[in-house]
Design a protein that fits this description.
Protein name: DUF6458 domain-containing protein
Number of helices: 3
Helix content: 40-55%
Strand content: under 5%
Largest sheet: none
Biased composition (Basic and acidic residues): 65-100
Region (Disordered): 57-100
Keywords: Membrane, Transmembrane, Transmembrane helix
Pfam families: DUF6458 (PF20059)
Length: 100
């Protein structure tokens, strides 16, 4: 039973327990509704427990070929060529000679 089905069962049980006022001599509708609501709550709990159980078995491993692609370069060889980091003077803005 999934969570949506469990909620539906709880709603049906609540309708039987609190909204229906008919009398059936052999069945207490309030008690039946509460029992159905408890069954829906148990279904939601069981669904949650089954969905969140830890997986047993071998842990997931990464293919060494794929792992090699994502390794970073050693610090001594960050770039093959030196990077020019000297500050440059910003260019002067050009005057605008458009229509006024």
């Amino acid at each position: 039973m999934r969570i949506g089905a469990g909620i539906t069962v709880i709603v049906i049980g609540a309708i039987l327990a609190f909204a229906v006022r008919d009398r059936i001599s052999a069945v207490n509708l309030t008690a039946l509704g509460i029992i159905i609501m408890l069954g829906g709550a148990a279904g939601i709990w069981l669904s949650y427990r089954l969905a969140n159980t830890p997986r047993r078995g071998a842990p997931a491993t990464i293919d060494p070929e794929i792992e090699r692609q994502y390794r970073t370069a050693p610090k001594e060889r960050v770039a093959d060529e030196p990077i020019d980091v000297t500050p440059h003077r910003p260019q002067e803005p050009r005057p605008h000679h458009g229509p006024r």
